Amino acid sequence: MKYLVRDKLFAIGDDYWIEDEDGRHAFLVDGKALRLRDTLELKAPDGRVLITLREKLLSLRGAMTVERDERPLATVRRKRLSLLRNHYRVTMADGTELDVSGHILDREFAVEYDGELLAHISRRWLRVRDTYAVDVVREDADAALLIAVAVCVIRMAERED
Fold first, then answer.
1. Of 7, 46, 103, 133, most Cβ neighbours within 10 A?
2. Which residues of 113-132 are buried (b: 16+ CB within 10 A; e: fewer)?
3. SS (H, E, C) the chain
4. CA pair distance 53, 102, nearest whole angstrom
5. CA–CA dist 126, 9 (Å, integer)
6. Nearest to 3 by CA among 146, 106, 129
7. pLDDT in tens, 101-160
8. What is the pLDDT of residue 16?
């Protein structure tokens, strides 16, 4: 399933719909303005909060936390620096790790678990300016989590740039 995301969603205080490949509202991104730290909520179309993204305070390398039901679900951190690709590690609360690598600022990267592709993020498929797709490859994958991971690494990469 592909989800379409417009880059303007990263403005704090802005709300934006993420659409599925059929043009239906799939998720609402709710940017929380006037907070001490960067906070976004990913909501279902009915308004239910599915995932909360928060900038982690007092982190040496920069990190964001992903929460579900007000409990930590994952932490996203920069893994290592390469001249050609960016690498991030997503450490789940249960200790499982996802790897994110590719050209983050170009919106061409992948999310993998143990070498298996879970999602591919790309602008290549689209002609709409400032839009990219999150293609969730596995049907049993958590689409909200994978979209949240994409949002986190893009925000972090833009701040480091």
1. 133
2. eeeeebbbbbbeeeeeeebb
3. CEEEEEHHHHCCCCEEEEEECCCCEEEEEEEECCCCCCEEEEECCCCCEEEEEEECCCCCCCEEEEEECCEEEEEEEEEEECCCCEEEEEEECCCCEEEEEEECCCCEEEEEECCEEEEEEECCCCCCCCEEEEEECCCCCCHHHHHHHHHHHHHHHHHHC
4. 21
5. 17
6. 146
7. 999 988 999 999 999 999 999 988 666 667 889 999 998 999 999 999 998 898 888 877
8. 82
| HSE-up (13 A, CA, CB side) for residue 62 | 15
Residue 1 tokens, joined: 């399933």
> pLDDT: is 87 or 124 the higher one?
87
CB 68 within 8 A of CB 80: no
Spatial neighbors of 134 by CB under 8 A, at least 6 apart, are 2, 3, 5, 119, 120, 121, 143, 146, 147, 150
| Spatial distance between the Cα atoms of 14 and 36, rounded to a whole number of angstroms | 17
Q: CB-based contacts of 127: which residues, under 8 Å, 6+ apart?
A: none
Q: Contact at 8 Å (CB) between 54 and 41?
A: no
Q: Angle at Cα 42 formed by Cα 147 and Cα 128, nearest 5°?
A: 55
